[in-house]
Write a structure and sequence with these properties.
Largest sheet of chain B: none
Shape of chain A: elongated
Structural class of chain A: mainly alpha
Oligomer: heterodimer
Largest interface: A-B, 27 and 28 residues
Strand content of chain B: under 5%
Helix content of chain A: 55-70%
Order of helices and strands of chain B: HHHHHHHHH
Number of helices of chain B: 9
Structural class of chain B: mainly alpha
Radius of gyration of chain A: 18 Å
Order of helices and strands of chain A: HH
Helix content of chain B: over 70%
Chain lengths: 70, 273
């Protein structure tokens, strides 16, 4: 933006929406994957579902942590 | 035996359809496989040709723009400066800020390269977005990946970079068990994958849709005839509308790719806050 702006307070970037995807996907894939591996290892069912929900929640939380700051 | 019977039935169906004109083959992933241009045994294919032509076109463009740089710019120089200024002000300025100056040449080149290879999808005769072949976006994404990790490690040190990445401050300790692996995973592994897939699949899908409308229209016009030939106006009209839409998507995707590269570099450079 304009040259005289201090570096720290950059304008709020609408583009962050594109960057957020990797957190959301990452949460689901990582913790869903861990759950799936646990299921495979222990011969159970359900860890994969828990993992996906947990991962989605963690991903959303992380997005909030990273991008909610002014 | 059973298989042979099926084959016979299929053959009959084919014959029946051949009687009323050829069957319509919807375009698919097979349309992205190209034989070698200069016969068997050579390796040079159409996507490679597009890359070479695109590279030369960009090189020529910037050469002409910079050749006789004057204070009152000529048309080509003005266009070159516009592209450079756009990347510097609208992409780098908004994300990295002042210290982003040194990344502007890379990002400008990246933007032009992707935009031209995307737009080759709607340039007559070429009509193939070279970026729909996954190797190209993958190579570009890896380049951006190397750069943003490298500048991050240089700025914060190896341990400092990953500590900065994985441990956002101000959280109760046990939470890090959950969030730190996720930060690492999404930053180091998912980011280049989404960069690659977003560009590839946008170009892939756009090209397929264009193929479908054009081939469908052609099929109605040539193979069906009569009233259906008149109806071919509709897919042809759609193909024209979608071509403009594709042009928009192609430039937008180049912009998004470069913007995200800049954003990742900015994130790697950012101090802990």
């Amino acid at each position: 933006m304009s040259e005289d702006q201090p570096e720290k307070d950059r304008p709020v970037r609408e583009v962050d929406g594109w960057a957020v995807i990797s957190y959301l996907l990452g949460g689901v894939i990582l913790y869903g994957g861990i759950g799936w591996l646990l299921d495979l290892w222990l011969g159970t069912r359900g860890f994969v579902a828990v993992g996906i929900v947990l991962g989605a929640a963690a991903g959303i939380w992380l997005v909030w942590l990273r991008y909610s700051k002014p | 035996m059973h298989r042979a019977g099926n084959g016979d039935a299929l053959h009959l169906v084919n014959v029946a359809q051949a009687a009323e004109g050829e069957e319509f083959h919807a375009p698919g992933p097979g349309d992205f496989e190209f034989p070698a241009l200069f016969g068997d045994g050579t390796f040079f294919t159409k996507p490679m040709l597009v890359i070479v032509l695109g590279t030369f076109a960009i090189g020529l463009f910037f050469y002409l723009a910079a050749r006789r740089a004057t204070l009152v710019p000529a048309k080509v120089q003005f266009m070159g400066e516009s592209v450079y200024g756009f990347v510097r002000n609208s992409i780098v300025g908004d994300t990295i800020g002042h210290e982003g100056r040194k990344f502007v040449p890379y990002l400008t080149t990246l933007f032009c390269f992707i935009a031209v290879l995307n737009l080759s999808g709607i340039i007559p005769v070429l009509q193939l977005p070279a970026t729909s072949k996954i190797a190209i976006p993958l190579a570009l994404a890896l380049m951006s990946w190397v750069i943003f990790n490298y500048v991050g490690i240089r700025r914060h040190g190896f341990i400092g970079y990953f500590k900065n990445m994985m441990f956002p401050p101000g959280l109760p300790k046990p939470i890090y068990v959950l969030l730190a692996p996720l930060e690492f995973f999404s930053t180091v592994i998912i980011r280049p994958i989404t960069l690659t897939l977003r560009l590839t699949l946008n170009m892939f899908a756009g090209h397929l849709v264009l193929l479908l409308t054009v081939l469908g229209g052609e099929y109605l016009l040539v193979e069906k005839g009569g009233l259906l030939a008149v109806a071919s106006v509709i897919p042809f009209a759609f193909s024209i509308i979608l071509t403009f839409f594709e042009a928009f998507v192609q430039v937008l995707q180049a912009y998004v790719f470069v913007l995200l590269s800049a954003l990742y570099i900015a994130g790697a450079l950012a101090e802990e806050h």
